[in-house]
Amino acid sequence: MSTIIYLMGGVGGSACRRRLLTRLSISRLARINIVIRVCSVRIKAVPELEAGEDFRCCSSPAGPPEPVIVAVTPEQQQLRLRCEGVRVTLLFDPPEPTRIRMVVKEDSEVVLNCSASGSVRDQVFDWKKDTDVEVFLYSRGSTYGSGLSGQSRQFAGRVAHFPEALDLGNASIKIKKAEVRDSGIYTCTFPRSAPVLRSEISLVVDCILKVRPPGEGASPKPHIRKIGETISRELWECEVEGAHPRPAVQWQDSSGRVLPALETKSEERDGRFYVTVRADVSRSGDYSCVVTQEEFCHQINSTTFVPIGSTTGVRDGVIGGLIVLLVLVAIAALVYYFKYKAVKGELAAASNQFIADDPPLTDGESSSLK
Fold first, then answer.
1. Domain of 109?
2. What's this model's pTM, rounded to 2 decimal places?
3. In terms of Cα–Cα distance, which of 85, 89, 55 is closest to 70?
4. pLDDT tens digits along 302-314
5. Number of Cβ atoms within 10 Å of the Cβ of 311
6. Closest by CA position to 13, among listed 35, 44, 43
7. Counting beta carbons within 10 angstroms of the beta carbon of residue 44, is it exposed (0 to 12), middle (13 to 18) or buried (19 or more)?
8. pLDDT tens digits for 15-59?
9. Are residues 271 and 188 both part of a single domain?
10. Does residue 157 sit in the same domain as residue 184?
11. Most buried residue, 243, 272, 338, 347, by CB count within 10 Å?
């Protein structure tokens, strides 16, 4: 952005009249020295700007004038000055950059955009969070972790830029696996440019429910157990120990449907909560006891398979059938074994009897057989 200054109108000299409408292009950050003698000048500021220079509306003063500094912002539409023989300095300050707001989910990759006109490969751009936290620094090819030091440990190894896009003026960065503590105001600055380029992004990282490290009251994994059953249903209990703050405890089926709690007990001891929830299960499937602490987005669960109904009947029928089959096979084997022993014994006895009843051969009978 830049500002064009128009000096219009004037009295007290042909020089002023000749410059009835004079355009003066200046840097937004530059100081503009305008010497005015016996003139009434109206200055209009509009969003255009290029370079700085001095402008003398009337004849030069006899001696060095006393300086007068007037601050002008691009938002001002006009400024009226009446003076005689004074040097007026117009100081143009850059407006506050437009702040972009971004909302992302925890663990996602975040791209923070920043750009300049022309290549930034040989420039310096600096990313900071909340004014003083060093996020990323690029200086003519060197970056944090590659020739430069000073990066905040919070962002070490998680921030990168786009080297292939530097020639296109791209000074954007990406943050890997965004954390809730990454939320804040990020500024991208080109400190060596004239004027200094600066952009801002307000980043909000919303947490997601997931298992958090133990400690600080995060609930441990809940204990689940079966405490009763009938032919068509089972009673299950979930127990949470030592959580803070008080957790929400629910039984859920595999589709995430919450089961009605038959009984809930909660007790606080030494600032920690001990919670027990019971639920009745009447269908086969996977069931989970889910523990949630919204305060720091902690969620943990224990899951078990509960076999009930037709599945149980089929399973029990198959197991029962196998047992009966094994018993029958064992009985048949025993019967076969004993029958075999009996038959073998009878054959042995008959053979012995046959040998006993047959008389020995005489010598003549033996010779004839030969």
1. 100-206
2. 0.58
3. 89
4. 999 999 865 444 5
5. 14
6. 35
7. middle
8. 433 332 333 433 333 444 444 333 444 444 433 333 333 333 343
9. no
10. yes
11. 243
